[in-house]
Amino acid sequence: FVPSGVFNVVGSGRGGAVYLDPKGVIAAVAAAQDIVVWDTKKKERLRRLSVSGCKHDVTCLAANESGTLLAAGYADGTIRLWDTGTGETEVTFTGHMSAINCLTFDKDGLRLVSGAKDTNIVVWDVVAECGLYRLHGHKGPVTAVKFMKKQDVVVS
Q1: Kindly report the CA angle at 141 between 140 and 146, in degrees rounded to 5?
Q2: Closest Cα to residue 56, out of 124, 139, 127, 116?
Q3: Residue 2: which residues within 8 A CB-CB, separation 6 or more?
Q4: Rounded to a whole number, what is the largest CA-CA distance in the chain?
Q5: What does the DSSP 8-state code read for residue 39?
Q6: pLDDT tens for each residue of 60-80
Q7: Strands of the chain, DSSP E
């Protein structure tokens, strides 16, 4: 076996990675306080998404179904929505008191749900750019969240 066409993508172990296209070619990878977008087929970096002066690491990533919008959770409890086409920040959500552990978009990409170390879940309206619901009840950090096929049900 002789490997060919191999390249390395270095990222933060804490923030993870997510594909931005259905074929699994374009990937967004957390890299400390930044996000690096890669074309894995061409083996090249497309762009670096960063916020000037941000000192908090990216802790998780989620993309909407079309890959046009990327949600990034940060260690300070903020969530930023990025337009993957322009590389610009669309909105910043502030509703958690500690690091974001998990993020998921609904099927239509209109809502985002976040879970954090602060034991809370927040459902966000992506279009209106505001929080809809804060869900309490976890006794420890929220480690996974998911919208069920029925749009008004969130499991954690």
Answers
A1: 120
A2: 116
A3: none
A4: 53
A5: E
A6: 999 999 999 999 999 999 999
A7: 17-19, 26-31, 34-39, 44-49, 58-63, 69-74, 78-83, 88-94, 100-105, 111-116, 121-125, 130-135, 146-147, 154-155
